[in-house]
Amino acid sequence: MGRRRTAGLYKRGGVWHIDKQVRGCRLCQSTGESNLSRAEEFLARKVEEIRQQAIYGVRPQRTFRQAATEYLSTYTDKATIAEDAMHLQILDPYIGELALDQVHMGTLRSFIEARKKAGIRNPEQGVKNRTINYSLQVVRRILYLAAYDWRDQTGLTWLETAPKIRFLPEADRRNPYPMCWEEQGRLLRELPPHLQRMALFKVNTGCREAEVCGLRWKWEVKVPELHTSVFLIPAQQVKNREERLVVLNRIAGSVIDEQRGQHPKFVFTYKGHAIRKMNGNAWRKARQRAGLPGVRVHDLKHTFGRRLRAAGVSFEDRQDLLGHKSGRITTHYSAAELHNLIKAANSVTNKKSRKSPALTILNRKTG
Fold first, then answer.
1. pLDDT exceeding 90 applies to what percent of the chain?
2. Which residue, of 26, 34, 56, 290, has the greatest Cβ tally within 10 A?
3. What is the reported pTM?
4. Cβ–Cβ < 8 Å for 147, 251
5. Do residues 193 and 143 share a domain?
6. Residues 229 and 220 sit within 8 Å (Cβ to Cβ)
């Protein structure tokens, strides 16, 4: 006859789980162990942690990896959560196993130096201070949540105080590079078909990379009065947290029509799967072959904005077409207003705008 298991432990799917009341707190979680003895040791440690918290106010030691996991599971609807996850993956080898109170500018130094060296060894990857700062921003956000929002069963925050995370100066920040039509043609010819369609859509709508990658069919809104449709991206999927109206000019509309029926959920896919980002190896190799090593995915948005300005589109209409935060209720439009925005978006598709000398001069200055 086997020995009796400790009260509060039960087995599910081959793994021991905890469901136990300890000092008025319900402890309910997986031990991650299939062996009963190790599961009992895990439970004992948890019980002691709660006792220490209740009697002495001692916080249990949590790693940054645990906090990162909590962040990713809590903020699944965040517009840039996929990008945050990518940065956390890069950070993990440097600070993942550190206790939360050991994460500060001193322990982040090795990560910062390694990222800078990666940029020197491989400039094509473009690891600049702005990119490093994005990682630091995610770290700062998680530490803030651990110090002020996340609490355990006894009401203690995960971290007593959040350290000050300082950002690096962005003197190496690269200027926008709006392309001329000849450069756009060279780049598009080198891109694989799925990226070519995404780039063509992006340069004709001014959408951000995440907006293009995550574009869903359920966000399409028919406008029967104008015999067209637009896309209305929810605020939680947009960087500035405002609903994003995406107006389709003739070219963007043709791209959308080409994508219909290819996937039930996402507009742009590759081999039946959603695309996490455009800026991958295929993009970088294509821009090298096109002789445009400095062109970034975001430059497609800059290109659209510069062409709108060169075509004489008003500042307010440019704000709406580019999805910039304006303070106006930008998703409440009459048919006449939508007609004007579509007309403005189409102004960058005709032959006259393609030969705009103003855009050529701007391109030389920023190249």
1. 56
2. 290
3. 0.65
4. no
5. no
6. yes
